[in-house]
Design a protein that fits this description.
heterodimer, A: mainly beta, 6-stranded mixed beta sheet, 11 strands, about 0% helix, globular, B: 7-stranded mixed beta sheet, 4-stranded antiparallel beta sheet
């Protein structure tokens, strides 16, 4: 099974940078995902890491260290529309995806 | 528009009643999933299917059943609903043959059991 931990809430100012950490314990690692979920909506895919290192996608970057069971999502040049919940998820070898409880990010003007 | 369709969007149900949540995808994805989302607990996997004709149990399968008779449809049935099954239910699909195999989610079904 999976045990996935991420902070409950974070607040940041428009234009700033925020880093959301995620730690996990898994019985069979097969990829780590980050999803964004706005209130009342479905989650949408942001990023995927299966090898160690940094994946950059515009203002969003995601990092993975498999040996440490650790990932982070970096949001740069924050915009008001980035206020949402960010979900860390780990896939196992049966292709089941387990999610953390999510981090609610509030962007203030 | 291609994607995942869930029905109903919202439902209020009396305890003890049987309920089926419908999920259809037109992306020809091989894998499909049902999650429930509750405040403070995040998304929890109920059942999944990696290919038509097969299903598997997730983290919280008790009280729920699924079937996967074909690629496109993956209904979730509550045989006898209880108040603890009040939740938002998300269906998702993925193509396990591609590099990322990320999940695509439906818009959710909000179920209230009284």
């Amino acid at each position: 099974g999976q045990n996935i931990d991420q902070p409950t809430e974070m607040t940041a100012t428009e234009g700033a940078i925020v880093q959301i950490n995620c730690t996990y314990q898994t019985s069979g690692f097969n990829g780590l995902f980050w999803y964004q979920q706005h209130a009342g909506e479905a989650p949408t895919f942001l990023s995927y890491n299966v090898l160690d290192g940094l994946e950059e996608k515009g203002r969003f970057s995601s990092f993975l260290s498999r040996s440490k069971g650790y990932s982070y999502l970096l949001l740069k040049e924050l915009q008001m529309k980035d206020s949402a919940s960010y979900l860390c998820a780990v896939r196992d070898r049966d292709y089941k995806l387990s999610f953390g409880a999510g981090t609610t990010v509030t962007v203030r003007a | 528009i291609a994607g995942i369709t869930q029905a109903p969007t919202s439902q209020i149900l009396a305890a003890g009643r049987r309920m089926t949540l419908r999920c259809t995808q037109d992306m020809r994805h091989n894998a499909m999933y049902w999650y429930r989302q509750d405040l403070g607990l995040g998304l929890r996997l109920i059942h999944y299917s990696n290919t038509a004709g097969t299903t598997g149990k997730g983290e919280v399968p008790d009280g729920y059943s699924v079937s996967r008779a074909n690629t496109d449809d993956f209904p979730l049935t509550l045989a006898s609903a209880v108040p603890s099954q009040t939740s938002v239910y998300f269906c998702a699909s993925s193509d396990l043959g591609v590099d990322t195999g990320e999940l695509f989610f439906g818009e959710g079904s909000r179920l209230t059991v009284l």
